């Protein structure tokens, strides 16, 4: 065995085998031969006779050459020896593959309707050439050649030409020169446009629920991406259990392909009971009712009753079907009582929202009226109210929304209220959050978080605590109790006008779904930027990629609080 060179010479003894195999080959080709040669598949067959062994020896070079050619080796030097003087007999196979064959030139030729418009021909040729992987000088492999042909065909199939086909292809190899010349001819067939919408399986909900999610329009050029987008919108809709969108060129009429949607509707009503647990609030129970076809108009109504040791709430929400321009309008109401850090609040909220999502961008316009009663540390009750308008912008640029490994999440919000419009105080409120994910090596990941908030007003007095800032807890500053970092008032912790939170976490995934984390958090909320005194917490944690999202179990030491606090939570994103 030569470790420092390219080759390994290994004897493969198998107990009770008909023969043994000694293979000397560059390591990058070993698996290819061991998994595909008859020589390896039949070595456990003890019934093989002398004639059959000789037949294996005669056919072995042809088998090896055929396999090596798939990797671009057309001029390999082979040595095959059969030593039948010992028991069991031994095959010795020596392979010197030589330099791989490389692409000398490639030629892409178009036929069909794509040639009718010079600008369209140039567009397609530019796209094909840019995506072609087997360019001059590239190592030639059969798998790469086949993938290149498929990729070129998909370029036509996906955009305007769903009837495209490979008209001809040829790879001409010169083994002595180690070069190959590639030729591919694609026939685009006719150019197609989208036709009318055909819907199958829609019985409970009105047709406009489907039509408003449809990004295709009759007469527009065919594009497979539009169909996939349509299908994703339907599947993400609460109305349908399954949705399949298709467009068959064989059903085209005058060059227009009907867009066919096959649906299976969800049941409209559901009652659910939930149980949960977190270290922020302890055990939690919830009861939820949902009707996604209220008044037979596809209006979505939901109501929930949620209770834990710190928070009890009754909430309702009415959502209208998405509009033709992609807007989602909703009304909501909430009654809530909280008892956190010696601050008891009773909050009544009514609101309206308009949301719109385009790809990974989402915007939300909201108007909320909040009335609140506060009791801090047993002091007299304070009554507050505010009418707040806000605009939120969300960007989710990650590889996986449930288990992000790379990318970032960003949320920015700006809002405010005025005394002239039902608020006790004039104020402007800004809030931003970002989470950044990056892989580290093959088993590590780095997560950085930051959160900033500010309320510009003469004082926090007159602003509901629901709009002020507190921090601390499972998903903010670990090592401290839930929302215990803020402004001290009468033995309680109330919200401040400014917020700063930062976090750094490294996770080592020792198994695909299990990891160990090392983290440090820092944050505080105060009434003035100069009063922010970042409280630090750091510790170790266990991570599990559960079916419902990332599950986190952390042990954190808060420097200002002392001791070690356990934190349990599910999910990280927003």
Main sheet makeup: 16 strands, antiparallel
Strand content: over 45%
- How many DSSP-defined strands? 28
Radius of gyration: 33 Å
Uncertain segments are 1-16
CATH topology of the largest domain: Porin
* Overall domain count: 4
- Outline: extended
CATH architecture of the largest domain: Beta Barrel
In the sheet with the most strands, the strands line up as 11-12-13-14-15-16-17-18-19-20-21-24-25-26-27-28
* Name of the CATH class of the largest domain: Mainly Beta
Explained architecture:
The protein is mainly β and 574 residues long. The protein folds into 4 domains: 7-96, Ubiquitin-like (UB roll) (Roll); 102-187, Ubiquitin-like (UB roll) (Roll), CATH 3.10.20.310; 193-265, Ubiquitin-like (UB roll) (Roll), CATH 3.10.20; 340-353 and 380-570, Beta Barrel (Porin). It is built from 7 helices and 28 strands. It has helices spanning 27-36, 38-41, 50-70, 118-131, 142-157, 208-211, 224-236; strands at residues 7-12, 20-26, 77-83, 90-96, 102-111, 165-174, 179-187, 193-200, 240-246, 256-265, 269-278, 282-294, 299-308, 311-319, 327-340, 343-358, 361-376, 382-398, 407-417, 427-440, 444-456, 487-489, 492-494, 498-511, 514-526, 535-546, 549-558, 564-570. The protein has a 16-stranded antiparallel beta sheet, with no helix packed on it. Strand 22 (487-489) and strand 23 form a beta hairpin. Helix 4 (118-131) runs antiparallel to helix 5 (142-157).
């Amino acid at each position: 065995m030569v470790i420092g060179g390219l080759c390994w010479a290994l004897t493969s003894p198998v107990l009770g085998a008909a023969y043994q195999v000694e293979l000397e080959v560059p390591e990058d080709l070993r698996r290819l031969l061991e998994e595909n040669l008859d020589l390896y598949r039949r070595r456990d067959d003890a019934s093989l006779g002398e004639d059959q062994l000789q037949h294996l020896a005669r056919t072995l070079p042809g088998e090896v050459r055929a396999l090596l050619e798939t990797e671009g080796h057309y001029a390999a030097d082979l040595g095959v020896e059969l030593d039948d003087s010992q028991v069991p007999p031994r095959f010795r196979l020596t392979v010197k593959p030589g330099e791989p064959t490389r692409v000398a030139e490639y030629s892409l030729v178009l036929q069909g309707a794509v040639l009718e418009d010079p600008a369209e021909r140039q567009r397609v040729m530019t796209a094909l050439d840019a995506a072609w992987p087997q360019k001059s000088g590239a190592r030639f492999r059969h798998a790469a050649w086949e993938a290149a042909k498929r990729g070129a065909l998909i370029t036509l199939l996906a955009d305007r030409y769903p009837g495209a086909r490979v008209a001809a292809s040829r790879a001409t190899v010169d083994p002595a020169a180690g070069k190959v010349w590639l030729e591919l001819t694609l026939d685009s067939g006719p150019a197609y446009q989208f036709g009318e919408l055909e819907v199958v399986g829609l019985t409970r909900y009105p047709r406009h629920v489907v039509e408003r999610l449809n990004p295709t329009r009759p007469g527009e050029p065919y594009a497979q991406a539009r169909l996939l987008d349509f299908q994703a919108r339907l599947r993400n809709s609460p109305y349908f259990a399954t949705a399949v969108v298709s467009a068959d060129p064989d059903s085209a009429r005058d060059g227009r392909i009907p867009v066919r949607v096959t649906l299976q509707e969800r049941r409209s009503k559901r009652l659910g009971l939930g149980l949960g647990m977190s270290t922020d609030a302890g055990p939690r129970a919830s009861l939820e009712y949902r009707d996604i076809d209220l008044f037979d108009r596809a209006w979505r109504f939901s109501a929930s009753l949620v209770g834990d040791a710190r928070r009890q709430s009754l909430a309702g929400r009415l959502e209208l079907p998405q509009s033709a321009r992609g807007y989602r309008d909703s009304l909501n109401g909430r009654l809530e009582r909280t008892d956190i850090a010696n601050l008891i609040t009773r909050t009544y909220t009514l609101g309206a929202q308009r949301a719109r999502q385009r790809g990974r961008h989402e915007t939300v316009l909201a108007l909320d009226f909040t009335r609140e009663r506060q009791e801090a540390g047993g002091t007299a009750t304070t009554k507050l109210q505010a009418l707040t308008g806000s605009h939120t912008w969300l960007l989710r640029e990650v590889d996986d929304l449930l288990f992000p490994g790379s990318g970032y999440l960003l949320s920015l919000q700006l809002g405010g209220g005025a005394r002239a419009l039902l608020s006790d105080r004039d104020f402007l409120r800004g809030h931003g959050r970002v989470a950044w994910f990056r892989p580290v090596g093959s088993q590590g990941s780095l997560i950085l978080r930051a959160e900033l908030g500010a309320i510009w007003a003469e004082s926090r007095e007159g602003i509901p605590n629901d709009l002020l800032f507190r921090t601390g807890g499972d998903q903010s500053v670990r090592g401290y109790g839930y929302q215990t970092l803020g402004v001290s008032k009468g033995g309680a912790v109330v919200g401040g006008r400014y917020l700063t939170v930062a976090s750094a976490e490294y996770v080592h995934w020792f198994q695909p779904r299990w990891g160990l984390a090392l983290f440090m958090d820092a944050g505080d909320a105060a009434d003035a930027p100069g009063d922010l005194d970042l409280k630090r917490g750091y510790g170790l944690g266990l991570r599990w990629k559960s079916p419902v999202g990332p599950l986190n179990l952390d042990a954190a030491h808060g420097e200002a609080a002392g001791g070690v606090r356990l934190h349990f939570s599910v999910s990280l994103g927003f």
